[in-house]
Amino acid sequence: MLLIDQRIRVRAPRLAQALRVIVCALLVFLPVRAQEPTATSPRLEAITRKLNSIVFPHLDFREATLRESIDYLKKKSAEFDETTELKDVHCSTILRDNINDRRVTYSAKQVTLLAALAGVAEAAKVDAYLTVNHIYFVPKGEAFVPDKSDVGEVSQKLTVKK
Question: What is the pLDDT of residue 113?
Answer without folding.
Answer: 93
